[in-house]
Amino acid sequence: MFGWEFPPHITGGLGTACFGLTKGLLKHGVEVLFVVPKAYGDESQEAVRLLNASDVPVLIHDPVYREYWDQITFMEIGSNLIPYVTPAEFEEMVTENTRSAEETLSPVFAERFQFSGKYGHDLMAEVSRYALVGASIAANNEFDVIHAHDWLTYPAGIAAKKITGKPLVVHMHATEFDRSGENINSNVFEIERKGMEEADRVITVSNLTRNIVIERYGINPDKVITVHNAVEPSEKSEMVETEKHVREKVVTFLGRITFQKGPEYFIEAAQKVLERDPNVRFVMAGTGDLMEKMIRRVAKLKIATKFHFTGFLKGDNVDKMFAMSDVYVMPSVSEPFGISPLEAMRSNVPVVISKQSGVAEVLNHVIKVDFWDIDAMADAIYALLHYNSLTQMFQTHGTDEVNKLVWEEAAGKVAEIYKSAVIA
Contact 213/192 with Cβ under 8 angstroms? Predict the structure, then answer.
């Protein structure tokens, strides 16, 4: 299994999903060798054997690898793929990255590649090197199926398949259309399309994503299967308790502050709620390329005294944020699935989600609104803050609902997909 991140070193839901899935697969008797670009040594290996791609030697002069390398083209990436830097930092990165071909190729052909494991300015170079490592790992390990998560690892999955002839399953957690709307990066689109074309099976995290894969990428519907994500059951015997330090109710947005996640709609809805009830505080937890713009918008609307930006949260801090929240909102413009609402519901927090999200396919005890309908969003938030019987109903039934969405069940479906790919 190829992935770009693994807890506790994550930047979003992808690493969390990989962790949950591998734990579920173990319960179905599936042994997983999980390859990451860079391992830090503190990752949980309770369900996987973690392999650090930075430690894997590549015999670059071997004709097999050289032949594969000849098929790889270095590609320039757009700023939409680097969600955690300012425009000034991105410009500096691009300037720094305009190196000569000789300077670029010398580290590429090193016997061991040192991966950052991040989403930096030389991301495409790392993706290409990771593919070579994938070929090397495939040639030196015994396995039955190759599973590649998201476009960053598709080239590695393809390389492993070419070396061994073993079946390839690719997992589509988010398409380029989700991340960028219609302003897509054509290089990333081609990697996604090529990965899905080469794959024996394609797993999508929702029917919403499945439709995009079939209609926008032209992938054969017969090999595209939806397996909805799930959530890790809470290992805490009781709810996290934390002091709010504020008397007002708290409404939370938690996610990347990017186009895909719809942060601007959250802010516009917040203003409408505050016009009706000034005794509410809004929290935007996360980072991203739209963060500065959102801060300026909050200031312009004159609601800064009621609005808080926390930066990126993970681990226990996420649990504490949910414990302080009275309502959770996910206003995504295009969300393939969306694990955070499940985490909020697990913490007994009532949820408002956009209809344009995959998780809306499996949840009933939430309020669903169109991402662009800020009036409906504001009404939903206001109702959950002020009508206790409504809130209690969503808390009671929502918790029961989310407790049934477990990774073991999702993993069982994935294990069946593995079997069908091997048999075919």
Answer: no
